[in-house]
Amino acid sequence: MNDDLIRRFVDEPEVSGLFFDFDGVLSDIVDLPWDARPVARAAEALESLAERFKLVAIVSGRGARELLAWLGSGVEIWGIHGAQHTLGGEVLLSERAEPYAELMERVQGDARRRIDELGIEGVLVEDKGVMFTIHYRAAKDRDAARLTLEKIAQEIAEGYGVVASPHKMAIEVRPPVEFTKAQVILQRSREAGLKKVAFVGDDVVDLPGFDALDALAREGVLTLRVAVDSDEAPAELLARADLILGGTAGVVSWMETLVSAVPPRG
Question: Between the chain's N and C termini, which has fewer beta carbons within 10 Å?
Fold first, then answer.
């Protein structure tokens, strides 16, 4: 990583923004998604960064409510890839997502029924309001579970007109309206007038975040694509990164380095 790029990034915190994924970045990957928590010192580092940089935001596939409970209201939180966000300690649903709430409730009920009938041990369905995720990380035979669950998810997607997409050891089912981390990063960066933007991710679903930084770079914004390395880190993400950090511990260390390099505002 070019040290000069880091220096230029922290030189103007008043026009700089930091966007973070959560799972695999601020929280270690766990078998049961609801067992995840921020790693030691992560929440404190986020709060300190928010006191120094113009914008600090979490952009995650998780629901905003649990992220708010874990991280507090000191940073912006965009849950379910932007379908939810926090404002003044409250969780708001995107106007584009509201019309699909009833449909997604029926879709999730059908998915749960089909999965229960199969009796695949270790498969869990996580309710995210207008979306849900089917996890198979805890399945004894992950490959077999993946094939079966992807088939079910695709059938449901076609039957109800919704979208099913594979993630790391999981399948996400969402309404037929696009919510992406890229949209959030582009929207908030432009609204805040940021001149320098970093995004930290660890998975294939974070690649659109890197795409957003590429778009901002073409607009003259200084960008920093940060990847978190692990046994499951996709090669494409690592290849596109300007900076690679070693696991969640490396992320916290980097955050604390930024904190020490920038005095609090005011």
Answer: C
User: Residues for the chain: how many in total?
Assistant: 266
Q: Is 21 marked active-site? A: yes
Task: Give the single-character DSSP code of 121.
Answer: T
DSSP strand pairing (222-229 vs 196-201): parallel
Q: One digit per residue, pLDDT tens: the chain, 266 residues?
A: 456 767 777 889 999 999 999 999 999 988 777 788 999 999 999 999 999 999 999 999 888 989 999 999 999 999 988 989 998 889 988 888 889 989 999 999 999 999 999 888 889 998 887 889 999 988 989 999 999 999 999 999 999 999 998 887 899 998 998 888 999 999 999 999 999 999 999 998 899 999 999 999 999 999 999 999 988 889 999 999 999 999 999 999 999 999 999 999 86
Cα(39)–Cα(14) distance, integer angstroms: 27
Domains of the chain: 3-94+179-261 (3.40.50.1000), 98-174 (3.30.70.1020)
Q: Which residues contact residue 233 at a Cβ distance below 8 angstroms, ignoring those fewer than 6 apart?
A: 202, 203, 227
Three-state secondary structure call for residue 225: strand
84-87 vs 90-93, strand pairing mode: antiparallel
Which helix (H) or strand (E) segment is 16 a member of? strand 16-20
Among 204, 100, 112, residue whose Cα is nearest residue 153? 112
The CA–CA distances, whole Å, from 59 to 77, 115, 205, 209 equal 6, 29, 11, 9
Of residues 199, 200, 202, 198, the one with CA closest to residue 234: 202
Q: Which of 3, 11, 21, 141 is catalytic?
A: 21
